[in-house]
TrEMBL record:
Residue ranges with Basic and acidic residues bias: 313-331
UniProt-annotated stretches for the region Disordered: 306-367, 407-429
InterPro entries referenced in this protein's UniProt entry, alphabetically: PAP-like, PAP2/HPO, PAP2/HPO_sf
Stated name of the protein: Phosphatidic acid phosphatase type 2/haloperoxidase domain-containing protein
Cited Pfam families: PAP2
Record has Transmembrane as a keyword: yes
Phosphatidic acid phosphatase type 2/haloperoxidase domain location: 126-269
TM annotation in the entry: 20-39, 68-89, 119-143
Annotated family: Belongs to the PA-phosphatase related phosphoesterase family.
Keyword Transmembrane: yes
PANTHER family: LIPID PHOSPHATE PHOSPHATASE, PAP2 DOMAIN PROTEIN (AFU_ORTHOLOGUE AFUA_4G08970)
Keywords: Membrane, Transmembrane, Transmembrane helix
Amino acid sequence: MEIPAKLPFSKRRLPPRVVISYIFDYVIIIVCAIGFAILNKVEPFHQHFSLNNISIQYPYAVHERVPMVYALCISGVFPLVLIILYTLFIDGLFSHHKPQDGASGKRKLRGPHRWKDRLWELNCGILGLILAQGLAFFITQALKTACGKPRPDLIDRCQPRVGSKDLFPGLSNSTICTGDPALLTDGFRSWPSGHSSSSFAGLVYTSLWLGGKLHIMDNRGEAWKALLVMVPLLAASLVAVSRIMDARHHPFDVITGSMLGVVCGFVAYRQYFPPLSEPWRKGRAYPIRSWGSDPVGPDTVQLVRNSSVALRNPEDGRIDPDIPRSEHARPDASTYLHSSSPYASNMYNRRPHDHDADAGVWSSSEDDVTNGYEMRQQNHDASHHAPQYDPSNAYVSQTQPLTANAGIHVSDPMAGPGRPLTNMPSRAM
């Protein structure tokens, strides 16, 4: 198979290492699907059981309250439709800083996000959802097959021969069963609950994704956002509880399956999206990644009010001839502050939190990034200027001293107004 040179919505050719790095994401999902199909046909381990064990003598429920098809619609189809509709049509619709059309002068109804940005967000959103479900199904089925724990309705599935008794000393095994072999095989797949793990994987991912888009942790205390984010979690809980009501799983199976789903959903979300504790990113997907680039470390210098310092890896500072010189001349906070950390990165150049982040348009498309594939800010409206830098509000790193030529004068509150603070010593954390 020939590796594509660029994405369908791209104008710039992508290096093969970028394409390969994302191909493996889809390969992992395909492997999980194939592994689940294989494990589903493998005979699970059959634990010994006691005919006198009351916890496995529940009647077999012919009709489930939430069949697997319905569970997949709730945890898979609904989140998929939500991600598609929100990303393509709703995202940016209520922005307070919509760019103006150059010809008519009217503000664009659809907001500041371009189609290629929406398509990139859609790609990451769907990829994360499928990854969460794929991991949950594969891990759950592997544990079911290896453990072979009896379901609460195992005796009804087993239909023991007349006169069967537990060995003394010892327990009974599946050789005394006369019931349907298919039902009996499934009767030894109680732990963990597949409905619970898949539902929580898909709906926890949806809850995190929705919370990021609504920037729920922006310290503004809007309760309706919390309510919307909790709805998917309530749906997952109801699906999980239905397995206990149908006597298909023990409570321990449901609890552990739910915990597994939570982990899968969280891990899948964090592969492509920033944490909810950084609401200024508005839940926008990470920019295009590539192998061979330096990892992003913590910034050694930060500004207050939840803005970050734009620090760049020295290797990423080289000029790309394909990028206009106007793009290279972008002023940012690195003009004022300097760090010697080799891991500092200009991953996100953003405005302070109090100034709505919608004032800038964030792009993760590959034709808007440098050789380091970093997110850039697209200013469609020239009237929107970045806020002025206030040196008195700067947070000075405790590990890195300011350089002599940094050009920053910080007022000394003990020395009186207007008097610069010089020879500031660095302190160890």
